[in-house]
């Protein structure tokens, strides 16, 4: 495993020249062209299974602003974020509960935001077979393509590799199940494959599912960790933009079956750290540590982290298909905006009220800096 560009080359504008890989794996989703239906408004009632969440909050906001009626099926009354939606309380995996929501609300469109197993998908398909809707939008993941990506940036029609996680394998299987079921029932399916979408409740680092530790170190002026040489690409984007892309795919029936919904560019891990630095008003002091050194520690904090997922391969997903169909769409929420949203939300939850105790990443960075200083002093004394 290397930490560099793995065959991709940035052009002078900061983009990437395509890095082709030999075809392997498979591509289960067949690209199909379909004409647009009548203009927006032909479908106007949407039932969300789960939400409003990291991505779906802005989806629901836009649909409501466009005059849609929106209902949400979820387990608790909290977390509606002040949105004017009809609430159905219950478990989406209970077929009777789902059937009640379908028959009571009578949606034109169902948006499945929280499907992670084929068993969950089978419950939905049984309910929709008995109570049909015009369209189903499934929120999948860009991880279904398998890593390393066969092309940079990765398009929907490019060759796939085998899934590298249970999560991706399940999402892939759900895509296939929904395709078969929708072909049988005549329900028109749209598959959404989001990239990493950073928002109020979700921001990643190589060692954490939250960025609170990173923010705390930046505010304290302490050095922060970057894997390898910091040039590995990650597909960071703003969840608000992703949600608005999903809304556009709901408003009219799109021509294609599947769409990447991600940022319209990519950043290196170092650039990602500088996004958070700008959000808190500091210039990060970045410490590069070879990933091979970290793997050699054989610590569970490494093996169970996102280090391999975020740094073993470049992550960059093309949005050309979406852009061609919605040329007026603008990615208006920047990565810095998304980082600020995350920090503000975590502050509202009291995440920074008490000092955050040092974690594994803190100890690694401090030990590396101290060890490097000792090594440098030893070398200087001998040369």
UniProtKB/TrEMBL annotation:
Give the protein's cofactors: NAD(+)
Q: Name one Pfam family in it.
A: Epimerase
Domain NAD-dependent epimerase/dehydratase per the UniProt entry, residue ranges: 47-240
Q: What is its EC number?
A: 5.1.3.2
One record GO biological process: galactose metabolic process
A cellular-component GO term for this protein: cytosol
> Which UniProt keywords are present, listed alphabetically?
Carbohydrate metabolism, Galactose metabolism, Isomerase, NAD
Pathway given for this chain reads: Carbohydrate metabolism; galactose metabolism
> Which Gene3D superfamilies does its entry note?
NAD(P)-binding Rossmann-like Domain
- Which terms in the Gene Ontology molecular function aspect does this entry carry? UDP-glucose 4-epimerase activity
Q: Which domain of life is it from?
A: Bacteria
Q: Which reaction does it catalyse?
A: UDP-alpha-D-glucose = UDP-alpha-D-galactose
Q: Where is this region: Disordered?
A: 1-37
Q: Which residues form a coiled coil?
A: none
Broadest EC class assigned to this enzyme: isomerase
InterPro entries (UniProt xref): Epimerase_deHydtase (IPR001509), NAD(P)-bd_dom_sf (IPR036291)
What the record says about family reads:
Belongs to the NAD(P)-dependent epimerase/dehydratase family.
Checking PANTHER family in the record gives: UDP-GLUCOSE 4-EPIMERASE
Q: What is this protein called?
A: UDP-glucose 4-epimerase
Q: Which organism is it from?
A: Arachnia propionica
